[in-house]
Amino acid sequence: MMIIFFLNGLSFGGLGLAAYLQIRQGVDFPLKKHLPWLAAFGFVCGATSWVEMFIASGVGENLNRTLTFLRLVLQPLTGLILLKFGWGIFKQMAPLPAWMSFIPGILIVPIAYVITYAATTFITPSPIEIPVDIWSRYLLYLPGSVIAGAGFLRQWHIQRKEGFNDVAALMFGAGMAFLFEAFVVGLIVPAAPYGPASYYNYDRVVHNAFIGEQSTPLKAYGLIAWLDYERVLDLTGLPIEFWRMLSTFAVTFFVVRGLGVFEAIRTRQLAELQAERDRAQEDAYQSQIAARLTAENWSDALVAINRRITQLENVDKILLDILSTARVLLHADFVGLGLMNEDRSQLMLKCHGHKDQLEMISKPVFLDNPLILNTIQSNRSYRSQDDVPAEELENICPVLDKSARAIAIVPLELDNQPVGALWVARCEQESGFFSATDLIWLECLADQIVIAIQHGLMTSKLQSLSIVEERARIAREMHDGLAQVLGYLNLQVQTLQALYQQGKGDELQVEIKHMRQAIQGAHADVRENILSLRTTLANEKGLISALGEYLGEFSIQTGLNSNFSNEITDELNLSSMAEVQLTCILQEALANVRKHAAANRVDVRLTRAIAGDAETICMEVKDDGIGFTTGGSKRTFGLQTMRERASSVDGSLDVHSSPGKGTTITCRLPCLQPEQTQKRSIVLSS
To answer: What is the pLDDT of residue 683?
Structure first.
């Protein structure tokens, strides 16, 4: 018997320890909230079994009284804890049916009756331990075990519906084990004069049971009993403690296994959650990749458009290209561009695109859609939502028979004045609305349209100025001067603005580098022009001194090693116009050396030559630069200008150059005849 009590205590203690360890692990499963009560139940039941083991071992009288009192306290406490645990899992493991809310009220009357009946039994001449033991089992342990069993059976039903068959089997086993526990522990009690264990000759049986004598068989006393210890022994041949040990083992096995499986299920659920989170992260990553590809496509398209603008391509072709980009990248069914007329009273369709067709409008098509006009007047971008009346979307696509379902409109502004609008439309219901990001990209395209229009206007103005005769002379004199550089810088500034808006840092740095080089070249041109203006022929030092001074300052400004050699000891004897052209030719030659020759040294030599009866002044400009081939050189225009200057005063200009061997320019200007020299002297003296 002591071994049975020991094993019972060990089993219940293991149950309490398993529940306590689950609490410490902090796992989340359906029984978590009630684990403290389950752990307390296991520990108290184990302690009760070991107390009964020590009582059965025949300890001393004083210790026996102490242990008996302790059992008197632990037995109802065990029932209370089990009742609390059973009702908790039955009530909270799953929502109860509505009719279950009436159970507490229904149980009040019979429970009150049982309590009253139990109270009357305490006046019977028997030790107090017997009624406490019996009614602790009847009123606490029995309903607690039944409710706990029902709760586990409910969990069995729930887990089976969710497809967790392994957990469902363990919950079914735990439920049946608690119901068996309710029978062998809560319903089978010691022999008593009431309840299911009532019998006759009670005093004799009680006396034998508590003084340790061998009891006479119950039938000899005429007992009428069917649920007590003696009846179980008669029917099975095994004491009730054995059956309670089996019940304890079953409860412990199924509950402990169930707790472990719940943790395994939680691990499985965590793995599923992790897999779902990984899928969500993968979807987010793919979305980021798609967004990045979209942004790259937009950036590439905007850079390509800007490049075409800077190359001064045809404006109409650029506008059609912009519309094609908008239609493709925004997945639009229609894209249109409207511009205000000269007096800004009406909006006219400039060009449009749908499907694979792009068209410039040759005949005036006036637009009166209120959404487009209001957008232009308010100068604020607009995208439609699901609250736009259908009639306001009817004229959005004037060349299509379909009505628009979603639109996005961006106004065009030039010099702080509204000049038109760019809009896109979707006609299919399932296409959806345009997003705020789509509107931002459309605004970028609108900026490119404004830039293209500005360049178109600039080109028109330049073409108008080209008919002026003076423009030819200025082009020859300043073909790569400051005006051209400033025009280039103007275009580059707009390019930089577009690249900045697109976030293209690398391209921005490249364009800035080009601008810096252009600015440096422009600065050198300005200084060279200032130097040319200061080199006046009215200088008292004369032409030779002016040329020497110019060459010296040129050397200082450019860092080139310059050498001026004058082999003419007397006057040059050139006309005033020839002196001017000689100076301009030298300036142009030195400018070419600075810009194109990549030279380290330049030599200028003046000599006098006689060809027949004619006397000439020969100026030779020689550099040690990279040289060039005449056909493909950037100097062709400048060389032509120098030849025209020499030819204008009956002179000549020869150029000798080859790649890697430098360049030599020889200018020959005729000297004045004696009578011409005299006339010139008179003019100068006067």
So the answer is: 36
Per residue in 331-367, pLDDT (tens digit) is 888 999 988 887 778 888 888 888 778 888 878 788 8
pLDDT recorded at residue 606: 93
Range of the domain at 350: 312-456
Task: State phi, psi for 375 to the nearest 5 degrees.
Answer: -65, -40
CATH number at residue 630: 3.30.565.10
Residue 484 lies in a domain: no
Are 105 and 237 in the same domain? Answer: yes
> Are 123 and 240 in the same domain?
yes
**Does residue 83 lie within any of the structural domains?**
yes
| Strand, coil or helix: 604 | strand
Residues 268, 341 within the same domain? no
Q: What is the 3-state secondary structure (H, E, C) of 545-595?
A: HHHHHHHHHHHHHHCCEEEEEECCCCCCCCCHHHHHHHHHHHHHHHHHHHH
Taking residues 67-81, report their average pLDDT.
Answer: 82
Separation of alpha carbons 581 and 648, rounded Å: 8
Considering the domain boundaries, does residue 496 fall inside one? Answer: no
Q: How far is CA 321 from the centre of its chain?
A: 30
**CA dihedral over 323, 324, 325, 329, signed as positive or negative:** positive
pLDDT tens, position by position, 242-261: 888 888 888 888 888 777 76
594 and 659 inside one domain = yes
| Burial tier of 453 (Cβ tally within 10 Å: 0-12, 13-18, 19+) | buried
